[in-house]
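Obj: model holo form, ligand = copper (II) ion.
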Amino acid sequence: MRFTLVALLLISGLPGSSQNLLAIPDTLSGTVFNLNIAPGTRNFYSGFTTNTIGINGDYLGPTLMLRQGDFITINVNNNLTDTTTLHWHGMHVPAIADGGPHITITPGTTWSPSFEVKDKASLHWYHSHLHMRTAEHVTKGASGLIYVRDTEEDSLSLPRNYGIDDIPLVVQTRAFDPAKQFLVESAADSVVVINGTMDPFILLPAQVIRLRILNAATERSFNFGFSNNSLFYQIGSDGGLLSAPVSMTRLLLSPGERAEILVDLSALNGQVFSLMSFASQIPAGIYGAQNPQGAGPNLITGYAANLLNGNDYDLLQINVVPPNSNPVTVIPSSLSIVQPYLESAANKTRDFIFSPEVMGPTGSLLGPFVINMMSFDMMMINDTVRLNDIEVWQLTNQTRISHPFHIHDVQFYILDINGVAPSPGMAGRKDVVLVPPLGGTVRFIAKFEDYADPVFPYMYHCHMLTHEDGGMMGQFIVVDSSTGLPENEKGFFNVYPNPVVSGQITLTWNENTGSDITLTVFDITGKELEKIEIRETTSSVFTLPVHDFPSGIYILKLESESGSYYDKIIVDN
Ligand code: C2O
Ligand code: CU
Ligand code: CU
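Output (holo structure tokens):
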């Protein structure tokens, strides 16, 4: 392999000395996975040491190889001096295992969610989801890929030799300060990093190659294509395979979105070309275009000076070498069965408005970032969804910039974008959709099945991580009304003060619940801490001291003959 590369260098004069062989993340497989999140360093620039967060390494993490139907456990050890979380983006898992901002992993502890892999074959990813600091942890490196395999995908003639003809690409841009430390919020994100490699090149055999692309940038959209304008075939979107390959020469992915593509290099042996972002063709109103603001002046400081905005640039140089034995040489004609839910089957429609009053059209691109006029509040459940309901979510973006909207728990199908049915590459299973600016609309349909939890929520949010951290996020719980665990009903009991700052919480409830009450206190991981029987006398007030509780979020469960009720408290000692 090394010899081939040297020969190639001599023949073509490329890649230049500034280029680096693309790193391919290690893999982990099986049913028990051990991830260690730890501080690290990397020399992105010679003579400089950049501080990073790595997972089983110094930057990014291993690719998790999962199989549909397996019951898996992931031991996530937090070796940082800082709290973090780890979320399985795109995966359909119980809320308690989802790794959102409520499921914190404190320094020196291990969080071990277990769940069945229910997803279809797909490309997902994991990343930190810390409250208000997701951008910081992800920028430093706290993310990795997830491959899910299933028998349907096994049966297709597709490239699946990891790192050889099935290539993972974690595409990011980064900004560095003069000391070469990462800048978290900056329009100077002019450095492309793929799988943690700057200025990467790869040797690919002259056969059909599968690229699994994740846009893991903080804000930037990429308009993928090849320098030789090769046709390529999109075979998968966020949630798995499309019904059939879709041929194209450009593919726009916003932050959080994934795509799998096939490109046929059979006739290109010996050639050198590049995977690029054709950002000059990105429509105005998208971060990465010449003008990120749909109309009017560009208000992002430093944006115009960033040469990635509105210009075409290289992402990955590809050097085509002779084919392997048994190469895939044919693009399949069909892939999977994609069956969107019918709109007529929807039980409910919900509206999400990226609020004009706060964010635009007269506002700037710098926030505040809100949904339905509300900034994210850890203690507020914005939406309650009934288990097994099919819902239509209507997103309306009155602001000047496009926002990539992401939902946890389920995959959805796009019904329309600005009233028009999705193109074939967008008609499959999705969990992120870019909502156009200036009154743009998206409607999607999803079914909320399998997992209900009256306490732990799932998130929905803008996947521009700075917007998410800035409050452009909400949370929903999925409730199963048939099991008698409704959300805390108004007036049954009240908890105050909340957050608790006085060292004790006071519970009050309506008199005459008719029976004794059991109060159980759980920590955020669901571990039972206390169980107290409260005799129903004439009093309807109970005081619980909490001064020896570590600061954090706790779950209260109150049971009486009339049912079980849950609430959350924040203790700040
Ligand atoms: Cu990529 Cu809330 O997640
Ligand atoms: Cu997610
Ligand atoms: Cu946004």
